[in-house]
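Re: Re: ligand-bound prediction request (bumping)

Still looking for help on this. To restate: I need the protein modeled with flavin mononucleotide bound, output as structure tokens. Inputs repeated here so nobody has to scroll up.
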Amino acid sequence: MTDDGTNTIRIDEQEIPFTAGQTIMDAALAAGIYIPHLCHYPGLSPSGNCRLCVVETGNRSVAACTTPAAAGQQIRSDTPEMNAARKAITQMLFVEGNHICPSCEKTGNCKLQAMAYHLGMLDDHFPQFYQRREIDASHPEILLDRCRCILCDLCVRASRDIDKKNVFAIAGRGTNAQLIVNTPSGKLADASIAVTDLAANICPVGAILIKEQGYQVPIGKRIFDQSTIKEIALQEHSAQQETDRDS
Amino acid sequence: MTRTNICHSSNSEHLLHRLHAIQQQYRHIPSQAMQQVAAEYRLPVSQIKSVVAFYAFFSTQPCGRYHILFSNCTSCGYWSNGHNLLQSLCQLLQVTPGQPRADGLVSIDETSCIGMCDHGASMLVNGIPIIGLNPEKIAHIAQQINSEVPIQHWSATWLEVPDRVRRRDLLLSEAWIPGSALQQALKQGADDTLANIQRSGLRGRGGAGFDTGQKWRLCREASADTRYVICNADEGEPGTFKDRYLLLEYADAMLEGMTVCAFVIGASQGFVYLRGEYRYLLPSLQAALDRRRTQGLLGSCILDREGFDFDISIVIGAGAYICGEESALIESLEGKPGIPRIRPPFPVTHGYLGQPTVVNNVETFIAAAQITVHGADWFKAVGTSTSAGSKVFSISGDCEKPGIYEYPFGITIRQVLDDCDAVDVQAVQIGGPAGVLLSARDFNRTIAFEDVSTGGSFLVFGKQRDLLAIHRNFAQFFAHESCGFCAPCRVGTQLLKITLDNIAAGRGSTGDLEELQQLSQIVQHQSHCGLGHSAANHVLNGLRQFPHTFTQALKPHFTARFDLDRSLASARQITQRDDAAAHLDNR
Ligand SMILES: Cc1cc2nc3c(=O)[nH]c(=O)nc-3n(C[C@H](O)[C@H](O)[C@H](O)COP(=O)(O)O)c2cc1C
Ligand code: SF4
Ligand code: SF4
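Reply:
Sorry for the wait, this slipped through. Here it is.
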């Protein structure tokens, strides 16, 4: 440890500082290093379920978003092998759900899609699961299509910890796991969720969509038509840093 | 259903027990009951729903009044000498697996290993184990069910689960006197009791082999208001049944080991987390607890020591292998789905209700109790330098003498195979599906933490066994038991199963072997917990040790993975047709 209280870790070829309590992910993003992720969002407690951010330190594979940075860590992240594993996990997420990219309102704004571009994914590779999953269109303003859900848990955490409404949960084991709504009927219409809630807007894919505002931004001018997922992730991180500083 | 008949009990009842009672009463957990339980326990209804959805023994659709679950383990599963007993019973009772019969009398399904592996094909009927199944017994059972004979009135010999202890060593041959370890612990004090455990070299018997004394010390040194002791009696690894026996015959020593631990770390509450499949052991465990309370070995002022208060509750799981993983177990104890926590922090500092917690296996606590009585040297005299003491094995599969065997660490696999009269052995799977698959080349290796480590499962596969079927069975097990939290395990275990099934169906090509290899590595390296880390071991071992298993099933010419006939299954289902014309014969 250096005298000013900062330690350093090494990610691939770069030596970066970290402060006590930071995870590897926090430290990396703060230093402008992108570690691919879908279930991490700055300002929310980490979950570690998508496993895209798994990095190697010593002979262990750990999730960068849940592992505390520790002085002297030597981390491998941006290697062909690790990115191949990330691509395979992204393909797994695609085949597990029913992703209808060409007709999905989220197309171009979807992080799963953007991750596929980032990792150079050209096909699904694995056989499709074609699971039957329920659509909940009961809410006047918000649509929930479980077919496109990647079980990242972001809406669950956003609703519970930020919106303080606890609208969502994940229930069921293995590939039966699915997003449920915390109402006796299980329907979104009976939940207190509002279109302005973080939970209604945080979904990385097209599973939670705000109704009646389809295609306001034309395809070609959407988020990931303009920027890479890496740029967006770094922006999300600095935006959160500014919020933290202001408060 | 009226409100009153569900709300009869107080909140002190564990959520899992409450839900079990409802499941028993209504043969499922109705939506209204979930809402009432949520209100009673002041929990979000989503938590109740997610708990119900997580555990295999809860259902939201009614089961039959006789609810039958056949084990699908390679040792106590429903294949008996080439007969598919599950199918036979379904035919006899005219039941479709997974669906209750129209009159609601009976439902038949399968479940993961129920720990009856030394007794051959076995099942649970309304939670009660019936072992040693064969076609004749199945026919009798069908009759009993059709004439609606209550299970309690079924042949008494059917309801017995005899134990076969074939070899005793250090632990199982030592006499046990209730209170002896506690007396010694109180006499020498907590520091010396802990030092003795540390000096003994005792390592966890549940599989991971963590130093037990070290675990207790870390827990003791963690600052906290209170601490907990948990006995892991979830024994879900297929082929493991030694805890079933220990819980019956050595419960008192186990409870005393927990109490010694409580004395060392300063805990006042302990739990035994018992797998739902072993619910039938509850009366004898409760009796053991009561006996110890009357003997002053549990409760307040244990052995008249002022301030030494400790009691133990039993919490029964509801069908989830993952709840054997210690942090998932703790989540389950807290009334949640058994999803493994992020570690670190480990349970020794942040365990049950966030407090420092020791989780140890049944056998570990028994060993700790005996070490406290007889001293570290007594223990260290047996075993190897890094694996002190003895290990209790559960041996089953293709051998003449399946059962419980206790050996000193350092025993060779060959010796074990000789003792259980296993001839013409093709392979052994040590440590269950999560462990290692070994061929005859490795039979001179030893069972020890430094060589082949095991929580106790020892499965023998004879020459006639189809190893591909074994791999498919294991792959099915992990796909079914994956908790679903993380993507590589949730999806990857399914893909492993699909790929192996494809190869077995004659639709595999050489590329599938490379595919299996890569998939296995992803599941192993990228997953969140020990289940995922070990779920592909058997595939990787198989590819290396027995490549023939896979290559002989591959087709010399290319066969499309896509199976048109199989893809038409849903069309057949919708049109309710299954005649020849509804199938494509394109093979
Ligand atoms: C998927 C999984 C299942 C497990 N099942 C069991 C089990 O049934 N019994 C057990 O004692 N330990 C089991 N363990 C190991 C526990 O997490 C833990 O290490 C053990 O209970 C600690 O006790 P010990 O040190 O006395 O072995 C399991 C681990 C994993 C990853
Ligand atoms: S609905 Fe969206 S945010 Fe919620 S778990 Fe599914 S993918 Fe994640
Ligand atoms: S590895 Fe499997 S069992 Fe473990 S957390 Fe991930 S999905 Fe659940």
